[in-house]
Amino acid sequence: MKRRRTSVRRGLEATELAVCLPVFLLVVFSGFEYGWLMLRSMQIDQAARTGARYAAMYGSNSESIHDRVAEALQKAGISSATVTVEPADPSSVEAGTSITVTVDVDYSQVRLLGLRGIMPLPSTLHGQASMIREPDS
Questions:
Q1: What CA–CA distance (Å, rounded) separates 73 from 130?
Q2: How far is CA 15 from CA 10, 12, 110, in A?
Q3: Hey, where are the domains in the chain?
Q4: What angle (nearest 5°) sits at the alpha carbon of residue 49, between those of residues 48 and 52?
Q5: pLDDT over 80 (residue 107)
Q6: Alpha carbon distance 69, 28 (integer Å)
Q7: Would the pTM of this model clear 0.85, i.e. be above it?
Q8: How far does CA 70 lie from the centroid of its chain?
Q9: How much is the average pLDDT of 88-101?
Q10: Is 90:62 a contact under the CB 8 Å cutoff?
Q11: Predicted pLDDT at 123
Q12: What is the structure's pLDDT at 70?
């Protein structure tokens, strides 16, 4: 009688493992993916902030701002992004005017595991920063 209980118990443990292991792995991998998402989001925000800081300086133009943002993204390992500078030509605005730099990156280019079908993930990551144009020195 004792031997039969042990084999039933082992079968029950195997069934519990078969049910719980996929759920546990989904939670673990989801944590990795969301952590990666937050890291990439902060890197994109930092690239936008770098572009806005450069845009606030006297003598910067739209092309040089794009170059600074691309350089910051390249250091983060992000190869392509859409960069928007508002106003389009920051070299022509007066001191005290707000300049906004927006960076958009397709999440499929920076994803970690590709769990989009299993969990809700954004299609694009968005970073934005604004700074005030400094006066001429």
A1: 18
A2: 9, 5, 37
A3: 2-132
A4: 85
A5: yes
A6: 33
A7: no
A8: 15
A9: 90
A10: yes
A11: 92
A12: 95
Q: DSSP for the chain? A: -HHHHHHHHHHHHHHHHHHHHHHHHHHHHHHHHHHHHHHHHHHHHHHHHHHHHHHHSTT--HHHHHHHHHHHHHHTT----EEEEESS-GGGSPTT-EEEEEEEEEGGGT-SS--TTTS---SEEEEEEEEEPPPP-
Type of residue found at 135: P
* C-alpha span between 137 and 134 (Å, rounded): 9
Distant-in-sequence, close-in-space partners of 56: CB < 8 Å, separation ≥ 6: 99, 131, 132, 133, 134
Distance, in Å, from the CA atom of 115 to the CA atom of 30, rounded to the nearest integer, reads 8
* CA–CA dist 25, 125 (Å, integer): 25
Q: Judging by DSSP bridges, how do beta strands 98-106 and 82-86 pair with one another?
A: antiparallel
Query: Per-residue pLDDT tens for 4-53?
Result: 666 667 778 888 889 999 999 999 999 999 999 999 999 999 999 999 99
**CB–CB of 37/124 below 8 Å?**
no
Residue type (1 letter), 37? L
Read off the amino acid at residue 70. A
